[in-house]
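We give the entry.
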Amino acid sequence: MILAIDIGGTKVAMGSYDLQGEHLRETHLSRHNTEAAASLFHMIEAHFGGRVPRLRGIAIGVAGPVHARHVRLTNVAWSIDADEISAAVKAPVYLLNDLQALGYAVPHLPDSHLETIQMGQPGPGPAVLIAAGTGLGEAILVRHDKKYAVLPSEGGHATFAPVTGQDLDLAKFLQRRYQGHVSWERVVSGQCGFRNLFDFMRERGDQVSPELADAVGDRLDIGAAVIAAADRGEEIAIKLLKWFAQLYGAEAGNMALKLLATGGVYIGGGIAPRILPYLQGGDFVAGFRAKGRFLELLDAMPIRIITEPHAPLLGAAHFAASQHA
């Protein structure tokens, strides 16, 4: 049995998989609050109902930069030591960046778990992966021996690049808020991206209904409230989600252009399936394609949204299986 773990800013997902030849069979899934348990080992015990069975390996995808056998999460006051976990469970433990784990799932996802928003014409080059969830993750998929090697990145923390006049005004607003550097994660993420766009739009005079104002309150993560308001037809929420989609596409296009991602662009994370109509509506692709003379190159790149919610677990499990082999 292989245990896969996906640790994000708000939740921990776990999945048990039986390795049958080259195939993995999912046997049990569980979900935990990131800040609810005293330790990751206690969560592992809870996943198995108290007693941890003999394992072939554990692969852990973590939202933060991995340094050798240790990682500190970016948006949560957590740190993980792979050697400590390995000693406790008496099995090999592999640490991956969370987007690395998701990337290893890509070759194993059926078309039914991928939503195409630009057909393109895939080529032999690398593919890129971008995923807005609590934060903004990015990774690169490079073909190697008929398989993909997945390279982690912290590109979500690179400097936000405004394009339109509205973007420029937003950048000035956020420079005052953060007293300097404004990253892409500050505008394209669940933890603070929706909040920052909403506060900017409200300050410039966009009208907000009492119902949305009450739902938003002073919380940081307001995505669910904004999506619900858009579903009701509230103008500020619809405008916000269309703008969010355009900004998301702009950064995906930056990645694709820098890496000549003729292998395609994959969109992951928990936000994409929740705002699928806005990603399909043209704003994402418009932001992606707005690169001047290189429009033709970007037009040829397929763009696909990952709709399988357990893809990070599947990718982590496949990585652990490959290491075991």
Summary: The longest helix spans residues 235-259.
